[in-house]
Amino acid sequence: MKAVQTAITASHTVSPQEELWNSFRQGSRDAFARIYQEQVDNLYHYGVHLCGDGELVRDCLQELFHDLWQSREHLAAQLLNIRYYLLSSLRRRLLRTLERDRRFRAETTEIPFDFELIPSREHAIIQDEKVQEQVKQLHAALNALPRRQREAIYLRFFHELSYQEVADMMSMKVDSVYNIISKAISVLKKTLPPAVLLLLLQPGK
Amino acid sequence: MQQYHLYTARDFALDEYFQEWVLRPDVKNTYYWDTWLKLHPEKKNAVDTAIQLVRSIHFRDYQMTAAQKEQLWDNIWENIAADDMTGLSPAPAPVASRLRIFTWKYAAAVLLFVFLGTLWLFMRTQPFRTVTASVATQPGQTKRLLLPDSSEVLLNAGSRLLYTQKEPLVREVWLDGEAWFHVKHTKDNRSFIVHTYDHLSVEVLGTRFNVNNFGNKIAVVLQEGSIKLNITEQQDQHVTQLYLRPGEMLRYDKTDGEYSKSRTDAEKVTAWTHGQLVMDEYTVADAIQFMQQVFDRHVTVKDPRVLRYSVSGSMPIIYNADTMLMQFEKAFNVRFNKRDETNHVGEN
């Protein structure tokens, strides 16, 4: 029990992320290149899920990284999560651009959200047709959730943002994020009977 | 304290800390959940199910090609260079002539950036995977380990070391029990951190030292080089930094957070690493503590006054509890009571 309690208080020194961020702010091009290299795939992934237009996402990313470099001296020194910062910045830019474009297009054009859930690789290798069918149903059920909810699930499970960060980014309450994820877990649990779960158990964890 | 023992699979799957362990395991959360599961074996099914629930959430993949990524990076730098250019010429010349004047200079600069950037990408694209390794020793057993950064660790009996490398160049371990470290100095002065699951961590560049994190006390002894200790004060969470010089020892009490520095014979403390027990005013109480730490064997003496008997000298450490106990009995000329052989049932 003791170890359980003390594990959480293990002491904390300056994290590598903070170090990277600080040397970037001081003008290190290496640090900038590293941030780009570490984050760009995730940002692109999110961007395409959000708007479905790879070219638009690349344009926004170019603008984002350009502005990031130019404003490096004015950025916050204490940054807890670089990924969160960049994701929310990309989100704002994309939504702004889409909003602007919409004025030139038909009024009815909706912002296309995606966040489509697909079976994981472990699911794909299962031969059993019955199980395959269940997995298919499961994802259909998840994809039937409203887009905004899928985005919250996506941000939590794909980008590993904390509940608080997801809430901040999507301007909702932490409780709502918790409820959305709770709903998704329920869907999963209902559709995936224990037998299927056992089949999916991987060795090694 | 979370009421995890009341959790169902669904509750686990919803718990942020649990998700973090499944999605991004590191030494801290792995240690936490491994330890928790050991204490609550009846929850294994619920936890397994929850792991699967969390893992079954997947999203369609979208990726840029390597060429697109490179192109994007080039565009970013081109724009930055273009900004610098306008910054340098407050009265912008007409586009055509400006291009002619500045092109060669900035083209060279851009090319250099592109080159450096590409070099970076090449150096960075080697896939890096989070390494989380855990090594434990049974009572009466020691292990010698070589970490990926070629630092050497000798793990004493009944101890556990978790090693993680979340990012390249970061060296961090979590220690439960006792270990002797020989940390290799890296060219870029990367520090090596030993965490103790308590308010104390040891930070070094390259050196030899011993950490004993057994029971209620932590003792850090330095053989050579220098080390920094980060101690989080229990009252105000303020971090105190202390430095040790060779031959100095820091004792830290986990129960009240008190600590003190003293001089000691480092060779004596680390003699166990070459199978020797060096005894200098070594008491029966010390021997009892030794039996407990190394063999998880709880022995007692009838007369508490005997606890203060002491001897000086040295003896080989035999990794067999009965033989070792016999050696102690001979050295002190006392008899120990081996009262509860069954004591370590339930430990594993």
Automatic annotation (TrEMBL), chain A:
Gene3D superfamilies: 1.10.1740.10, Winged helix-like DNA-binding domain superfamily/Winged helix DNA-binding domain. One of its GO terms (biological process) is DNA-templated transcription initiation. One of its GO terms (molecular function) is sigma factor activity. Residues 137-184 form the RNA polymerase sigma factor 70 region 4 type domain. Keywords: Sigma factor, Transcription, Transcription regulation. Residues 36-103 form the RNA polymerase sigma-70 region domain. Belongs to the sigma-70 factor family. ECF subfamily. PANTHER family: RNA POLYMERASE ECF-TYPE SIGMA FACTO, RNA POLYMERASE SIGMA-70 FACTOR ECF SUBFAMILY. This is RNA polymerase sigma factor (Sigma-70 family). It comes from Chitinophaga ginsengisoli. The lineage of its organism: Bacteria, Pseudomonadati, Bacteroidota, Chitinophagia, Chitinophagales.
Automatic annotation (TrEMBL), chain B:
GO terms for molecular function: sigma factor antagonist activity. The chain crosses the membrane at residues 106-123. Gene3D superfamilies: 2.60.120.1440. This is FecR family protein. It comes from Chitinophaga ginsengisoli. The lineage of its organism: Bacteria, Pseudomonadati, Bacteroidota, Chitinophagia, Chitinophagales. Keywords: Membrane, Transmembrane, Transmembrane helix. The keyword RNA-binding does not apply. Pfam families: FecR (PF04773). Signal peptide: none annotated. Residues 135-228 form the FecR protein domain.
